[in-house]
Amino acid sequence: MGVVANALLDQQDPVIMLITKARDSPYQLTYSIMAMKLPIPLWFLTALILASCAYPRQYYSIKDKSILLAETKFCYRRSEIPISSSNLMRPSPVGKDYSRYFDCIQMMATPEYSICATHYNNKDFLDDSVKAIAQLIRDRPEWEMVITDAGSTDGSLKILNEIAENQKNVHLIVEDGLNIGAGRQLALENANGDILVQITDLDAEYYQDKRILQVASYYKNLCEKYGQVGLSVSGGIICTKEIAEGVGGWHSLPAAEERDFQKRILNIYDLMFLDVKLVKFNAGNTKGLLNKGERTVAVYSALLQGGLSYWCILYNRLFESEDLKTKVFSPFLLTYAYISTIQSISKYSTYTQFDDYVGGIVSTAIHKKPDRWVEAPDEIKPYVDDDGPSLKPPNSQI
Q: Can you spell out the DSSP letters for 356-393?
């Protein structure tokens, strides 16, 4: 259809006006074609345009509805400018810069990168998370941010709405009652980019430098070298939309959803690890669920739903954990999780019953997949985690 659009745009103003009339009223377009007495080739072309307008592809955001004419890059935003001949501008005397002919049809840049995030009642962190990231991608049409909110009640929703209204590449989707896994899946479904930067929740303080942009660009080069792989960093998972959809998206889990998603990437594609931090501070371990015990039960429930057996998890906590409290309380919390989850045990086939990754993806990958740790290039080396001993094994080969 791009060829059809170009053929029409090579004509004079009346033909260009057909595109605006096609979206407003297909019947009006038909009368316009008849009145203009177009040659037979253009009859065929305009018929294709008319057919494409009858069933347009629709894209929704919190700000407006954008409707693409077939596969062309021209976009009409209904909420901004009404269609009328008065909106059309006269042709430029120099060349054929048709992008300047009218205001209501504009070139629409498809973003290449989508930052996906979930949110619920994180008002105190918005300055250091959403606002910082939104400022970073402002005036970058190749980037967008998709935020899903589970129905916040602390006043943060008003702030998010204002950010989305004032910045076209920030999109907010609100759906009450989403758990974190369902929220991530909703963001995935509404992301337009080919590369997804799926960051930790927005109850965090993000570095306000350009590391997110540079790590995403590095990931693109990594895919060109190794093919379809995922990349795990501290504070996020980066992968292509093809990978995310290929593993079945995000499961509707209240906790441990990142571990579940990473394991499925390992099962079907491959997952590499980069020792870089995107997040300076994460409050996820101190807020959200009522206490650490409730969070632990939610993690156990997610592991049981993912296919791990009760005995595998218990053995890991009793004999492979170094924390005394974990050894003492795990049997009780795990049993409670098993009873409360009994109807959905092994709902997903993420793990085998006695899976090596029961203790976590990153910690297990240190020993099981040392060759999957990638060396940070020069432009990213300043962001390597220096706050403590590196997780990267000394025999990293890549």
A: GGGG-HHHHHHHH-GGGBPPPPTTTGGGB--SSS-SS-
